[in-house]
Amino acid sequence: EVHLVESGGGLVQPGGSLRLSCAASGFTLTDHYMDWVRQAPGKGLEWVGRTTNKAASYTTEYAASVKGRFTISRDDSQNSLYLQMNSLKTEDTAVYYCARSAQHVLDYWGQGTLVTVSS
Amino acid sequence: DIQLTQSPSFLSASVGDRVTITCRASQGINSYLAWYQQKPEKAPKLLIYAASTLQSGVPSRFSGSGSGTEFTLTISSLQPEDFATYHCQQVNSYPHTFGGGTKVEIK
What we know:
The structure holds 2 protein chains of 2 kinds.
Chain A: E1 3-7, E2 10-12, E3 18-25, E4 33-39, E5 45-51, E6 60-62, E7 70-75, E8 80-85, E9 94-102, E10 105-109, E11 113-117
Parallel strand pairs in A: 2-11
Antiparallel strand pairs in A: 1-3, 3-8, 4-5, 4-9, 5-6, 7-8, 9-10, 9-11
Chain B: E1 4-7, E2 10-13, E3 19-25, E4 33-38, E5 45-49, E6 53-54, E7 62-67, E8 70-75, E9 85-90, E10 102-106
Parallel strand pairs in B: 2-10
Antiparallel strand pairs in B: 1-3, 3-8, 4-5, 4-9, 5-6, 7-8, 9-10
């Protein structure tokens, strides 16, 4: 059974950094593109970014709102996906989900981890 | 970036009603559109991809149609477990934007 579990969320001050992790199980991470999606309190979903798989050279894409501040990485040997978030802003406050991509759509999602950026 | 506009943003319906939600793209996206269902405090769940293909395990009362810039999600007979928020997402080009969501509530 496919399982995705995010961790690493919490309270951070504006300008600070945080690293989220996503532990994957039940499938071969190497085969899949992986995305991060976030949802601010009471708001809709916002696509954050993607890492492709080994066959596509692990390239990354980002939303303009996070480009240059967030970095997606992965360690297939550890079945893990990461989101390094730097220069955090109050508007980055959200629940962050990792999700598996199949045919470009997101067929499995984690339960999410809450990031709160506040002084 | 491609903008997705969902309508309505909120709808009130009764069990057994036929419900239709529209998602309009600011430019053509072929059939690269997915629909997700999200219940409160839960992660989204994939319902439909490629505009009209039902994800495995999703009840057949859900259907999707459209191509280009206009898409619809239809629930043929609303069930109690269908009261949720529905999101569309385009995967034609980066960034893979979402619509604003449609909340379906009990009338």
